[in-house]
Amino acid sequence: MNYNKRRRLLFLTFFNIFLLAILIACTGLINRCDMTAVIDRFRGNDNAARDQIENDVQAENKQNSTTHDNAPEKPETDKQDNPQQTGTEKEQVQGSSGEDAGSKYSLLPYYKPENASRYEKYGLENPDFDEKRVVADVNIGLDYPFYGLIKEIRNYNDITVLVNKYNKLPDNYEPELEKLEERYCAPGRGAQYLRKEAADAFRRMHEDAKKEGLNITAFGTYRSIPTQQKIWENAINSGRIQEDVDSLNSRGGHSEHHTGLAVDVVINDYSVLDTEEYQWYKDRAHEYGFIIRYPEGKENITGYKYEPWHLRYVGPEIAKGVYESGLTYEEYYVTVIEPNMQN
C-alpha cells in the first residue's frame, strides 16, 4: 500500500515536472514569438519611415523640377506699357530717356556737360531746333534774355575775345593802345586808338584801298568802359525805350570798343551802304583780319541791329573762317574757336 502511494506520488511528481517543462517551453515560445513580432514590427516601421523619406525626397525633387526646369518662361513686361509700373521703375525709365536725350547733344564737339540741363530745357522749348542749333544757342547764352546771364571775361587780352551782352569785361580793364596817324582817321573825329595788331592791319587795308582811289578811315575806335556807360545812360535819359537803346548802344563793359580791336569805318550810319568803300571792304576786310561784326538779319543772336560800319579785328585766319561760314561771330566762337581753345 505504501508502495503504491509512493509510485502514485512519484508519478504525480514527474507528471507535474513534465507539465511544468511543457509550460516553460510554451512560455519561451510565446515570448520568442512576441519578440519576433516586435522586431518585425520595428523593422517594418523603419522600412516604412525610410520609404516615406524617400517618397518625400522624390516628391520635392519632382516639385522643384516642375517649378524651375519645366515651367514656361514668363514674358517680360514692357515697363513703358505696364499700367502697374512702380515709382522707381518710372524714374528709371525717365532717367534712361534723359540720358538718351543728353547723349544726342554730347556727340557735338562743342557740347558742354555743365550745360546739359539747359540743352534739355531749351530743346523742349524749341522742338523745331536741331541739336546743333540747341547747343550753339545755349553756349552763346540765348536761352536767357540779353543781359540775363552775364559772365566776366577772363581771356580779355586774346584778339579773339568774345565781348557781348552775355560776356562782360572787368571794370578795370584797359588795353595797350597805339594812336593812329591822322591820315587814317575820319576828319573832325579827333585822335583814334587801336591795339597794335588791329592798328597795323587797318593801316594796310587803308593803303590798299587807297591804291584803288578809296578812302577807308577810322570814324570811331577805342572807348573806355565809363565813357560807354555814360553814352548808354544818356540814351536812356533821352526818352528812348530801353529795348531800342540796347539794340544800338552797349552797356558799360559789354562793348567791343573797350578792347581796342573794333573800328567804325567811314561813318557810323547807314549812309555807308551807299559808298564805294563799303562795296570794297564788305568782301575784302577779312583778308586783313576784320569782320563785319553785326551782320544783317542776325539781331536775335548778336543783340544789335545791322551795323555795316562796325568792323572787328580777329586775325586773318579767323576772319576768313567767319566770312566763309556766314555765321555770326557768336556762333563761330562757340562752335569753332572755343572748342579748339579747350583742346
Mean pLDDT: 82
Bulk shape: rod-shaped
Q: What does the main sheet amount to?
A: 4 strands, antiparallel
Secondary-structure content class: alpha+beta
Helix residue percentage: 40-55%
Distance between the termini: 149 Å
Instruction: Please indicate the percent range of residues in DSSP E strands (runs of 2 or more).
Output: 5-15%
Total strand segments: 8
Provide the gyration radius in Å.
Answer: 52 Å
CATH architecture of one domain: 2-Layer Sandwich
Which oligomerization state do the chains in this entry correspond to? single chain
Under CATH at level 1, the class of one domain stands as Alpha Beta
Task: Give descriptors for this structure.
11 helices; alpha+beta; Muramoyl-pentapeptide Carboxypeptidase, domain 2; four-stranded antiparallel β-sheet; two-stranded parallel ribbon; 343 residues; 8% strand
Task: Please give a quick description of this structure.
The protein has 343 residues and is an alpha+beta fold. Helices cover 51% and strands 8% of the residues.
Structural description of this entry:
With 343 residues, the chain is α+β, with helices and mostly antiparallel strands. Among the domains are: 93-140, no CATH class; 151-342, Muramoyl-pentapeptide Carboxypeptidase, domain 2 (2-Layer Sandwich). It has helices at 2-69, 87-106, 116-125, 131-140, 196-210, 225-237, 242-246, 276-281, 299-302, 316-325, 329-342, and strands at residues 151-152, 167-168, 178-179, 193-194, 218-220, 262-265, 290-294, 307-313. The strands form 3 sheets. Strands 5-6-8-7 form a 4-stranded antiparallel sheet. The protein has a two-stranded parallel sheet with strand order 1-2. Helix 2 (87-106) crosses helix 3, helix 3 (116-125) crosses helix 4 and helix 4 (131-140) packs across helix 11. The longest helix has 68 residues, at 2-69. It is rod-shaped. The model is unreliable at 33-50 and 56-102 (pLDDT under 50).
